[in-house]
# Entry
Amino acid sequence: MRRTIKGNVSWVGYIDWELQTFHGDDYSIMNGSSQNAYLVEEEKTVLIDTVWTPHGSKFLDNLREEVGLENIDMIIMNHGEADHSGALPDLMREIPETPIYCTANAVKSLEGQYGKNGWDLRTVKTGDSVEIGNGKKLVFVEMRMLHWPDSMATYLTGDSVLFSNDAFGQHFAVGGLFNDTADQCLLEKEAMKYYANILNPFSSFVTKKLEEISSLGLPIDVIAPSHGVIWREKPLEIVEKYAEWANAYQEDQLTIVYDTMWEGTAAIAHEIAVAATRVSPGTVVKVFNCSKADKNEIMTEIFKSRAVAVGSPTVGNDILTSVSSIVHFMRSLKFKNKKAAAFGCYGWSGESVKILKEKLADAGFLVVDESIRSMWKPNSEELASAEPLAKALLK
# Structure
């Protein structure tokens, strides 16, 4: 069913309460999600985005009932990724002459995924617009690398609604749709998790795009993203959050991440946590065994941190694959302005700490000299090294 957003703008998307992973299994979803599509009904009827393929038939049935497919005058595809465009091929089989407005890069992604079907693909760039009647128009703003090269946002004049695509979204299912109907603690957590795990690598693009949108001088009453809540209550607060998060964000937090074989490395991790609380009582300290904790939750905590400590025992002249995967993920997210330290146990050759230091430096962290490297099992002297390590990270 449709849900009114503002004026003649309606939500016609899909709330996916059962969704557990996204991007394959690369992003964990704890509180459901939504695929947001919108109808704008002025003199022309405009559909903005579709939904993922598994929900396509229900989506089309809803459009038939609510508006009639034959009455859709144009389609806006803000982004070609399958969670936005999955229902498009079935829709176009029924209304093949309907023009689709998108970026030039979106033409490549749509044709790359669904083939060259002769669709009327009309490319737009920042500042282009299309009249939809009643004195209103849609203005297009390219959003390259937020988070695909083909991304754009669409702004509706008159009602001052920004259809922001993947920017300002979250994977969060909210029955009331709007931000003021959501659990506020969960909303902030999910918005930060989404930014940290998906958009953080593109923070420099975020900063420039926020400046560009601000320079356009567009009043914004509602921000309608592709996932999660629609921001109607103080919508610019999430824009301010993005500006803050994009600027090498950190809080007074230390995150300790490790895996262990025979609990020696775990003992060091826990001792570092105790020492950090002694050294800096106001610092939030969190500890994760990366083979047991959710990796996206870990990355969100690292995003919040000013320092991390990463530990692994040596196995096969290397680090554990679980830890290697985490550090590789950290590298891909391009965190800035964070300190790091390494620790671990070994029985024979003992390369893990050296390898971790190299990998953390390669991931963009400022690696401190202090480390803990223990043969077999950490003794009291080695555990006492946790305090100077914590001081190096936090002082």
Summary: The mean pLDDT is 95. The longest helix spans residues 184-199. Residues 45 and 73 are 5 Å apart (CA to CA).
